[in-house]
Amino acid sequence: MADLDRAGIEELLDLADHFTEVLERDIPKVPALRGATVATLFFETSTRTRLSFEKAAKALSADVLNFNPSGSSLSKGESLKDTVLTVQAMGVDVMVVRHQAVGAPARVASWVDCPVINAGDGAHQHPTQALLDALTLRRRFGKLDGLRIAIVGDIRNSRVARSNIDAFTALGAGVTLVAPPTLLPLEVDSYPVATSTDLDSILGELDVLYLLRVQLERGSGPVLPSLPEYVARFGLDRRRFGLLDKDAVVMHPGPMNRGIEIATDVADDPRALITEQVGNGVAARMAVMFRLLSGRGQP
Amino acid sequence: MIAIHNARVLTPDGPLDTDLTLADGKVHNLAAGEATTHLDAGGALVGPGFVDLHCHLREPGFEWKEDIRSGARAAAAGGYTAVVAMPNTSPAIDSGHLARFVADRGREVGLVEVVPAGAITMGRAGNALAHLDELFQAGVRLFTDDGDGVADAGLLRHAMEYVAERGGVIAQHAEDPGLARGGHMHEGRISSRLGIRGLPSLAEEVMVARDLALAALTGVRYHVMHVSARGTVDLVANSKRSGLRVTAEVTPHHLSFDHSRVATMEPDFKMYPPLRTEADLAALSQALQEGTIDAVATDHAPHAPYECEVPFEEAPRGVIGLETAAAAVNTAVELAPMLFFERMSVTPALICGLSSQGRWIEEGSPANLVIFDPDISWVPETFLSKSQNSPFRGTKLRGKVLATLFQGRLTHQAWS
Fold first, then answer.
1. CATH of the domain at A268
2. A-to-B residue pairs, Cβ atoms closer than 8 angstroms
3. Which residues of A are catalytic, by number?
4. DSSP 3-state assignment of B142?
5. Greatest alpha-carbon span in chain B
6. Does A139 have pLDDT greater than 60?
7. Distance (Å) of CA A190 to CA A185, A187, B190
């Protein structure tokens, strides 16, 4: 995400804005990428991101190949390089890669001739998530300049946080990271953000409360004394929700752990933009694919 | 009979511009003499062949990465006349017959003295002592579980007591497993931004601090392998001042690169311990100049090309180094010729007790020699090692091995 400057992000957001309009049509489809083939290769499991890319590709009239590593040659010992070269040989125009290892999509891009879209690599980056979140905020507030955004949760192990910090700050928002010390990034002073370990004290100042899933499965040894302790300090319950400004919104990249980082009634409140985020994800991914494959036609 | 002309010969009294003649595996005299082969050193240094305290020749068990023959060829090309082969093979070198196998294979190949290191624990599993006495009788002097540190302080204490009594060396790959768990690169600003879990400098420093206390208790000779962190340098310096028999080595790559290289995500920059900060790099260079760090060791760790065609976090750890070590050190650190050869040959030979290696050149000294020109620049591109995972590929280096002589025989020469 850091490779895109403000103008680059805004160009994609403008394109995505256009595609949100397309997605509201009776026939939510344009022929922009007719004849193109999009391959999704999700070496790490995902539901919403893969479906979102597939929907985005189909809305652009592209054909979609889904690669599922379980039951594939990968489980028979084929290397990542051979796998992606095999997929390329079938004729694809863009690959969408999610992988558990940092830098894997970039590594794949060095082996294949077609563009590669990073759909999440380890704890590194999830750029299309950052685009869809920025799109959601821009559609809500008009712009991100001056917005006060807190990102709460397992930031240390979160690719969503790393991409969103880049995108939100590039677009002029102020970001505060909120987490227990074991879940804040190391060397956090080198990030362009503020930090806090006291959620209650900053809630009243926020425009956006961005909650992350507590990824207990990613920890190295015990990073939290207990889940109830986390919920007591950092969970967004009704009381904390009441401390937010009346115009403030709540976001979450999903999948949610209801009752942990977010109370179930808060998750269903109209000021929780979680389903809007999902809808905007399709438009944002259409924008990225269109941008990479443009020249094939106009939207 | 080989004669070497126009040489700057490193004698016990310092550099001397002279010719020399070799016969019967020894230096016959420091003068031109009758010979069947004449080598023109062209003013280059002629010193004792380099001695590597730390390389992975991968045999037995991992011959697709390297074997003793290919590793010995790489060593000879790098100016080495002796290498200590690490015991993390399959099976691990934890018994006498296995150490003998490695030494015998080295003799059959005949390009370099292959000195087996022995494991400290059975199978390098960290649970029970290896057959230390058997290993000692097979010629092993340096004991290590390299690849892993010995985490159990009680077990290490016993190993130290046992090895101290026999006059051996305990060499530690210092890496506290709890602090290092899941790490792939130096823990710092760059690992944090990349989202890659780090190995903090403390993982090394904590184990070295503990080991130095145990070494003081047991009186063993203790050697810190591949020092990477500034704090470790300080610990070693303090222990030396207090009279402990401690030595330390540093690799050429830790003297040449910092952790910013990992941002490229190239597996050729993945090694344990990891590349650290510029400040660590400066401390390592200074320590090598001043002698806090006694020796350069390659930690030559070959991995087949296809094993490296993976994302960084899934890549194997370690890089090759035998063929570039002398040039890399000569490029990275300012060392006068005598000091350069002390760190590359004389001291490492003393640490592992090799009497026919690392000897300044005089009449009757062993003809284990290297001809090294510190002023020739070149760019390494391909390697004689079976593996090509070098962080120096494509990097301009200064200093070239022109020829290597082992037991009076030419084992490598770069003149065409």
1. 3.40.50.1370
2. 69
3. 48-49, 76, 98, 126
4. strand
5. 65
6. yes
7. 10, 6, 9
Residues β-bridged to residue B29? B21
B189 interaction partners in chain A (CB closer than 8 Å) = 187, 190
User: Tens digit of pLDDT for each residue in A202-226?
Assistant: 999 999 999 999 876 554 457 888 8
pTM, full prediction: 0.94
- Whether the CB of B334 is below 8 Å from some CB of chain A: the reply is no
Q: Which residues of B touch A157 (CB under 8 A)?
A: 195
Are A31 and A158 in the same domain? no
- A203 shares a domain with A104: no
CA–CA–CA angle B349, B355, B358 (5° rounding): 40
Our answer to whether residue B299 is catalytic in this structure is yes
pLDDT at B415: 79
CB contact under 8 A, B181 and A102: no
Query: How far is Cα A236 from Cα A141, in angstroms, rounded to an integer?
Result: 22
Give the percent of chain B with pLDDT over 70.
100
* Interface contact flag, A124 B196, Cβ < 8 Å: yes
Could A81 and B309 be called an inter-chain contact, meaning their C-beta atoms sit closer than 8 Å? yes
Q: Please determine, for residue A88, whether its predicted confidence score (pLDDT) is greater than 70.
A: yes
B137 CB within 8 Å of a chain A CB? no
Q: Hey, are the CB atoms on A99 and B265 less than 8 Å from each other?
A: no
The answer as to whether A299 is a domain residue is no
Q: What are the structure tokens assigned to A107, written together?
A: 């590594």
| A125:B195 CB<8 A | yes
Q: Are B57 and B318 in contact (CB under 8 A)?
A: no
Structural domain includes residue A1: no
Residues A101 and A141 in one domain: no
Q: How far apart are CA B295 and CA A116, in angstroms?
A: 45
Tell me how far apart the terminal alpha carbons of chain A are, to the nearest angstrom.
24
Q: What DSSP character marks residue B411?
A: E
d(CA A123, nearest CA chain B) in Å: 5
* Start-end of H helices in chain A: 6-23, 48-59, 80-89, 104-111, 127-141, 159-170, 199-202, 227-234, 238-243, 264-267, 274-293
CA distance B112 to B379: 25
The tens digit of pLDDT for each residue in B26-74 reads 999 999 888 999 999 999 999 999 999 999 999 999 999 999 999 999 9
User: Are A99 and A210 found together in one domain?
Assistant: no
Residue B314, chain A, CB below 8 Å: the answer is yes
Does residue A144 lie within any of the structural domains?
Answer: yes
In this complex, the residue of B178, B181, B313 whose CB is nearest that of residue A101 is B313
Which residues of chain B neighbour A81 with C-beta distances below 8 Å? 306, 309-310
Closest residue of B to A99, CA-based? B311
The rounded Cα A126 to chain-centroid distance in angstroms is: 5
Average pLDDT over residues B259-278: 95
**Which of helix, strand or coil describes residue B150?**
coil
Q: What is the pLDDT of residues B306-318, one digit of tens each?
A: 999 999 999 999 9
Segments in B20-82 forming alpha helices (H): 68-77
Mean pLDDT on B127-156: 97
The closest alpha carbon to B394, from B269, B297, B306, B310, belongs to B269
A120 and A132 share one domain? no
Q: What is the ipTM of this complex?
A: 0.93
Provide the percentage of residues in chain B whose pLDDT is more than 90.
Answer: 97
Task: Measure CB to CB from residue A221 to each of B181, B189, B314 and give the nearest one.
Answer: B181
**Closest partner residue to B195 among A106, A159, A190, by Cβ?**
A159
From the number of C-beta atoms within 10 Å of its C-beta (0-12, 13-18, 19+), residue A225 rates as exposed
Domains present along chain B, CATH in parentheses? 49-358 (3.20.20.140)
Q: State which residues form the domain around A112.
A: 6-125+278-293
- Residues in A touching B192 (Cβ below 8 Å): 185-188, 190-191
